[in-house]
Amino acid sequence: MSKIKVLLAEDEESLGIIVKESLESRDFNVFHAKNGIEALEIYQSEKIDILVLDVMMPLKDGFTLAKEIREENSLIPIIFLTAKSQASDVVEGFNHGGNDYLKKPFSMEELIIRIKALLSRITLQANLQHLQIGHFTFNKTKQILEFQSEITQLTHRESELLFYLYQKKNQVLDRSFILNKLWGNDDFFNARSMDVFITKLRKKLKKDTSIQIINIRGYGYKLIC
Q: What is the CATH number for 97?
């Protein structure tokens, strides 16, 4: 398994060395830049997995760097390091594309936990964009179905219902469970509403005849694909 590539942009040399060595001792591959220009060059030349950016840097500050990178990459996780702690500074960081914000001084264990948490979240988001249902590609994040380049937009509830069916594909999805999860309770009227949504999903999936949503009377539904 390849090492996680971290771009660390920190102009305070002693801190940068400490963080780099600490992360490398935990089996990360760290590229240390001492200013924003150098950090951008590294980002463009290496396949970086996560960015750890000091806010106050010479030549190009962390917010500006993050904004430029976000214009071409909406998924890569970004953690800001800063001595600032005002609410307005935190908000500005998120407005410039940051996913997390760590105030100096910080512990290495906290940084590592946040790096791993962000990478797990981003991996999950990426996986949710390419779920295969027969010959359809289901993008849960964008709530769309794609079939031979033809795009079908789903509603939020259709998307959530299809995702639960997908998670239990070729198994029975309990009727009461999904009603309580998506409708709030399993009364008669909500059950009728869910039947309508199942019918809508069947119509949207009918281009692939190998896909079926079967009603298991008294139990729930089964997605076969």
A: 3.40.50.2300
**Going by C-beta distance under 8 Å and a sequence separation of 6 or more, which residues neighbour residue 95?**
none
Lowest mean pLDDT among 1-15, 44-58, 118-132: 118-132
* Residue 123 and residue 163 share a domain: no
Q: What is the pLDDT of residues 181-198, one digit of tens each?
A: 889 888 888 889 999 999
Query: Cα(first)–Cα(last) distance of the chain, in Å?
Result: 31
115 and 32 share one domain? yes
| DSSP H helix total and E strand total for the chain | 8, 12
pTM of this structure: 0.59
Contacts of 188 (CB under 8 A, 6+ apart): none
Residue 78 pairs in a beta bridge with 51
Looking at the structure, tell me whether residues 167 and 209 fall in a common domain.
yes
